């Protein structure tokens, strides 16, 4: 078995999701190569050389790959895919965008968003917003897989001196051009990486009221999230969204405020270790999954919580 | 400009899906079906481009069982000009659906293909990207805004951590995210008019691509359930529990 993992990074740092993906890859029992494509990404390669379980690093430092454009990155990966039985990437917007292109070109039916490795060809994955878990066996020669980061621990970083091999630049197709990027600037941890997440729902009533969550988040070192209802209502941007069609989180503590607990939201947070629900409707379904429930008006409870911390 | 919009018939998003008692698959007996919500957003965007004079024709396509005609009629009522069902009795995987759509696109020669970013049944998030690869078209997934230019389309995408803008040569593939638009409801007169619009049915065998499954579904189970915990009476009690019982805050 020979496994290729595609690294997600921002040319400065490796994304945590890459380390979870390597842990999933290590369960396949084979040699793991890590492919890092980007530009001026020496610090990423240096960091990657410390990852336990990786035998080889393939790098391509070129402007063609500085923004992870799927058209160009997929060509590079396909050109270097010979001999691999498995190609894995994190099921983040990076991997979701990229991997099906590789899959179609290699004529393999991708297995998306795996949460467990049962054997070299059999995997578990959530379907229907996590209402059910499917066990799926792939019969394709090359398995193309995306990995749900929250389902696997991070690979450890005690290695050194992993062999680095430069691979050929396959250039850019020119059919798609990067125009710009607007990344949210925040001192808080990223939603998917935070140990504590506090999320607001429709009950927050307005975007302005999210400052009630912000100040608690700052005290707890937490990330702030939201339900789809709060995003739909325009309270907060879409990258706050936790749920089936947003981000999947599994922090040590998840505090759901003014969130009723629709199945689509639960799909994104029910693997959290401890769940707290604050809602004035005692029949809200969120209380059925909460370890601690507080039936209260959030506009009273949040300031109280803020001052109690 | 011609726009192709693939549409999928899925279980209504309000239905809580459960496994069959023999765990061989999910139980879809007598459940309400609907147009996949992200496909509705794709169709709405195409119809708006037509209404603003940028597009001339909107064609809805579905690959599925005969009853998918119901969702194509809905698409026609929402503003598609005509529809085609590629009919099959099997459940096709995204790769097979992409191969079928590739043939349809080679025939229809659309300028844009707009799809939902994922279907809420399989949650695969694959078809748009696969189709783009097979056609060698550029792609912009998770679109929240699109602007048509001379021979390109500028698309703002929702990515982890923020927004990214790409410019794609036309023909191009776009998959929709939540905030691209708010789909309309079909009005009664439009539902009546849709009954007279053209809906072609083509058996999948006539398309001539390999649609055999590549994977096997071994079982479907419920996820481990979570027990409800306790109700605390006050914020003070909550903080005490989190500090001293759950030990998740200091």
Plain-language structure description:
By secondary structure, chain A is an alpha/beta fold. Chain A is built from 8 helices and 16 strands. The longest helix of chain A has 13 residues, at 93-105. Chain A is globular, with a radius of gyration of 21 Å. Chain B is an alpha/beta fold. In chain B, helix 2 (69-77) packs across helix 5 and helix 3 (94-108) crosses helix 4. Chain B starts with a strand and ends in a 5-residue tail after the last helix. The mean pLDDT of chain B is 96. Chains A and B meet through helix 3, helix 4, strand 5, strand 7 and strand 8 of A and helix 3, helix 4, strand 7, strand 8 and strand 9 of B.
Give a quick rundown of the structure.
The complex is a heterodimer of chains A (309) and B (250). Helix content of chain A is 24%, strand content 27%. Chain A has 8 helices and 16 strands.
Instruction: State the secondary-structure class of chain B.
Output: alpha/beta
Measured by residues with Cβ under 8 Å of the partner chain's Cβ, the largest interface is: A-B, 91 and 81 residues
The major sheet of chain B is characterized as: 9 strands, mixed
Instruction: Classify the beta-strand content of chain B into a percent band.
Output: 25-35%
* Rg of chain B (CA only): 21 Å
Low-confidence stretches of chain A: none
Question: Strand order across the biggest sheet of chain B?
Answer: 9-8-7-10-6-1-4-5-11
| Dominant shape of chain A | globular
Fraction of helical residues of chain B = 25-40%
Which value, in Å, is the CA radius of gyration of chain A?
Answer: 21 Å
Overall SS class of chain A: alpha/beta
Unreliable sequence segments of chain B: none
SSE topology string of chain A: EHEHEHEHEEEEEEEEHEHEHEEH
């Amino acid at each position: 078995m020979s496994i290729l993992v595609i690294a997600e990074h921002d040319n400065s740092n490796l994304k945590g999701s890459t380390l979870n993906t390597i842990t999933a890859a290590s369960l396949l029992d084979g040699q793991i190569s890590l492919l890092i494509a980007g530009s001026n990404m020496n610090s990423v390669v240096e960091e990657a050389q410390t990852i336990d379980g990786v035998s080889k690093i393939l790098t391509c430092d070129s402007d063609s790959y500085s923004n992870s454009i799927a058209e160009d990155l997929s060509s590079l990966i396909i050109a270097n895919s010979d001999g691999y039985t498995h190609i894995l990437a994190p099921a983040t917007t990076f991997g979701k965008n990229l991997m099906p292109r590789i899959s179609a070109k290699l004529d393999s039916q991708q297995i998306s968003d795996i949460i467990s490795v049962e054997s070299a060809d059999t995997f578990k994955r959530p379907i229907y917003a996590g209402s059910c878990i499917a066990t799926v066996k792939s019969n394709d020669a090359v398995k193309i897989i995306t990995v749900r980061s929250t389902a696997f621990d991070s690979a450890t970083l005690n290695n050194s001196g992993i062999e680095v091999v430069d691979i050929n630049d396959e250039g850019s197709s020119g059919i798609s051009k990067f125009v710009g990027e607007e990344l949210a600037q925040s001192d808080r941890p990223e939603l998917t990486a935070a140990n504590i997440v506090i999320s607001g729902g429709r009950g927050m009533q307005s975007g302005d009221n999210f400052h009630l969550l912000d100040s608690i988040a700052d005290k707890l070192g937490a990330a702030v999230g939201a339900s789809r209802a709060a995003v739909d209502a325009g309270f907060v941007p879409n990258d706050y969204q936790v749920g089936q069609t947003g981000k999947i989180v599994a922090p040590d503590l998840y505090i759901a405020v003014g969130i009723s607990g629709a199945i689509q939201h639960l799909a994104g947070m029910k693997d959290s270790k401890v769940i707290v629900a604050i809602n004035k409707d005692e029949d809200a379904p969120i209380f059925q999954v909460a370890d601690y429930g507080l039936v209260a008006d959030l506009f009273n409870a949040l300031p109280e919580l803020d001052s109690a911390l | 400009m011609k726009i192709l919009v693939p549409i999928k018939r899925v279980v209504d998003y309000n239905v809580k899906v459960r496994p069959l008692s023999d765990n061989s698959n999910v139980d879809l007996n007598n459940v309400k079906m609907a147009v996949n919500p992200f496909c509705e957003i794709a169709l709405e965007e195409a119809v708006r481009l037509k209404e603003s004079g940028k597009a001339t024709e909107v064609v809805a396509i579905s690959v599925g069982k005969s009853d998918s005609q119901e969702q194509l009629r809905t698409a026609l009522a929402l503003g598609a000009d005509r529809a085609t069902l590629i009919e099959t009795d099997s459940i096709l995987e995204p790769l097979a659906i992409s191969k079928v759509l590739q043939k349809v696109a080679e025939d229809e020669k659309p300028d844009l293909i707009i799809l939902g970013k994922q279907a809420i049944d399989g949650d695969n998030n694959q078809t748009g990207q696969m189709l783009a690869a097979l056609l060698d078209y550029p792609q912009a997934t998770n679109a929240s805004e699109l602007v048509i230019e001379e021979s390109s389309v500028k698309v703002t995408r929702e990515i982890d951590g923020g927004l990214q803008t790409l410019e794609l040569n036309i023909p191009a593939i776009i998959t929709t995210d939540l905030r691209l638009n708010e789909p309309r409801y079909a009005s009664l007169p439009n539902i009546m008019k849709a009954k007279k619009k053209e809906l072609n049915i083509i058996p999948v065998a006539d398309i001539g691509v390999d649609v055999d499954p590549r994977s096997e579904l071994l079982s479907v189970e419920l996820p481990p359930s979570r027990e409800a915990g306790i109700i605390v009476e006050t914020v003070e009690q909550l903080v005490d529990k989190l500090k001293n019982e759950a030990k998740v805050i200091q």
